[in-house]
Write a structure and sequence with these properties.
Strand order of the largest sheet: 1-2-10
Radius of gyration: 24 Å
Number of strands: 10
Largest sheet: 3 strands, antiparallel
Distance between the termini: 63 Å
């Protein structure tokens, strides 16, 4: 691919330019693994089953519950039992609609973590590739998926390492956006948050009750410690949908996932005993 000779990449942009060939390969592998995943999903649908195993890889549907929550009522209830500031975070998108309240909590704003984003231009976009030559034999496709996935994970790790290095680039920190032959690298601000406990202590409970969103994982810890029961939380939540998400996962990664949930259950059990 020809370079635009009018652009001299500097700092983080030069780092990205040097990595670009790996970036292109990463994008191709993303498309390839997505293509194979879609073929395996269609095979499951054809057989009318929810899980299939091929050569150390599982293809399965995972159920994801979608809830509708009465946030204000839940926040009020959690405030009554004294745990609201420990489990809730002010929702910036909600409080921004109330300028007076936003001004009151603005001193407690915690800036979001900065991050780097590469935006490809026309020359930097990876062209679409036809993967139909791979065929539709599930066993052959899974073999392709496994090797491609392994390479993809390695490239993604290298890309994350690169972005951490670019984050430290003094030129990017000063100019915020740098051009390169394949697009541009930008330094962006992550989503800010608020110091909930400080807001609660300084301004009272109104802001967290009205604008708070509960972190359900944090709330699980308090349920395990006996501050309240799950059924008390469920009265403020209504199951509105169950969405099925298809995943391809290696037996090794699936075992790690199960171990993680087992450790989490055991940790919550210990909190329950301690509570």
């Amino acid at each position: 691919m020809a370079h635009d000779k009018t652009i001299e990449a500097r700092g983080a942009a030069k780092m990205m330019e040097d990595f670009y060939m790996h970036y292109g390969q990463m994008k191709r592998l993303e498309s390839k693994t997505d293509y194979i995943k879609d073929i395996i999903r269609k095979e499951l649908d054809r057989m009318d089953i929810k899980r299939v195993q091929y050569d150390g890889v599982a293809g399965k549907y995972v159920a994801c519950n979608v809830y509708e929550t009465n946030h204000v009522a839940l926040n009020d209830y959690l405030n009554d039992i004294g745990i609201l500031p420990h489990v809730a975070q002010i929702d910036l998108s909600l409080i921004k609609d109330s300028p007076e309240d936003f001004i009151a909590v603005e001193p407690f704003l915690i800036p979001g973590r900065k991050y780097v984003r590469f935006s490809p231009n026309k020359a930097g976009r990876t062209p679409e590739e036809d993967f139909s030559h791979l065929g539709e034999d599930p066993h052959l496709l899974i073999s392709q998926w496994s090797s491609s996935r392994q390479e993809l994970v390695s490239l993604e790790k290298n890309y994350e390492t690169l972005k951490r290095k670019m984050l430290k680039c003094s030129i990017l920190q000063q100019e915020r956006k740098l051009p390169l032959h394949y697009g541009s690298v930008s330094l962006l601000d992550g989503k800010p948050s608020f110091d909930s406990e400080a807001v609660y202590a300084a301004l009272g409970d109104h802001f967290l009750i009205q604008y708070g969103k509960v972190d359900m994982e944090q709330l699980d810890n308090f349920i395990a410690m006996g501050f309240l029961k799950k059924m008390e939380v469920d009265q403020f939540r209504r199951l509105v949908d169950v969405r099925l998400r298809f995943v391809l996962i290696s037996e090794e990664d699936e075992a790690k996932m199960f171990a993680y949930f087992h450790d989490k259950t055991r940790r919550l059990s210990k909190l329950s005993i301690a509570g």
